[in-house]
Amino acid sequence: MRRLAVAAALLGLSACAPGGCSGTVPPTSPAEPEGAASTPQPPAEPPAPEPVTWPHEPPGVLYPGSGSGATDPTLWAAGMRFPLEAAPAWANSQVYGYGGWQAPGPGGQCDPRNYAYPWRDNFCETRSWSNSKCPAGRGHQGQDIRPATCQKKVHWAVAAEAGRISSIGSYILTLLGDSGRIYRYLHLDMAEVNALFPTPASRTVTRGQRLGRVSDDFGGNATTIHLHFEIKAPVTDGETAAVIFVPTYTSLVDSYSRLLNAAA
Ligand SMILES: [Zn+2]
To answer: How many other C-beta atoms lie within 10 A of the C-beta of residue 242?
Structure first.
């Protein structure tokens, strides 16, 4: 009888006693009274792994004194691939970070404090560029992201989605995604970009395909070593349709979370 009950419990079958049947016994239910000889139990399900996370400020919270952030919480590029191939990456400010011209204190652009969490939004950071998504009507049009280390021509930028490289300028690569969104990558090693994509036929890319390595190209000048990443999305405002700069940070947080959790 006991052997049958144990077998039934192990198989998750109905347990029947002289008083009747009591329904399905969960396989993990104790099958033996206290003090009985131990019986083999099915292995417990391994606990689901804790999602990997990282310290990051909320969207729209800029460096103190660097302007007012976008209040729009929309996930504008749901499902996009994080635009750098590998973690870690550091979303923060070039101008208001160490080594920038509005730096919080002495230190160079390679200061370890620039290569550390938390992330911080810098869409809408104070600039003269027109930007309808900023409270001021103007501001930084994308997000600055430092790659893992302060080395140029090492860390790959990759396609946020499948599409076509529609232009390669002196410091801007433009990707027209199949969704209709436009992604702009600034400050890659443009000599390499041109070598990788020499012809129109070569410029159709897959999601996650390498586009070039992060550098400091700025059209004959140099900036800091970082990827400036922009998203432009089709937006209809009443009768007016336009492709405009949209807040990047929420889409970057979403895609980086997937990258950290091996679900990029
Ligand atoms: Zn920038």
So the answer is: 11
Would you call 101 exposed, middle or buried from its count of C-beta atoms within 10 A (0-12, 13-18, 19+)? exposed
d(CA 180, CA 48): 36
Phi, psi (deg, nearest 5) at residue 236: -110, 120
Distance 92 CA to ligand 1 centre (A): 10
Q: From ligand 1's centre to the CA of 162, what distance in Å?
A: 23
Question: What CA–CA distance (Å, rounded) separates 249 from 181?
Answer: 15
DSSP letter assigned to residue 56 = B
CA of 67 to the centre of ligand 1 (A): 14
Pairing of strands 156-158, 143-146: unpaired
| pTM for the whole structure | 0.82
Ligand 1 center–CA 30 separation, angstroms: 61
CA nearest neighbour of 94 among 256, 225, 253, 214:
225
Residues 29, 22 contacting (CB under 8 angstroms): no
Domains of the chain: 90-260 (2.70.70.10)
Q: Could you report the per-residue pLDDT of 4-61, keeping only the tens digit for each?
A: 444 444 444 444 444 444 444 444 544 445 555 567 787 788 888 889 999 999 999 9
Phi, psi of 6 (to 5 degrees): -65, -45
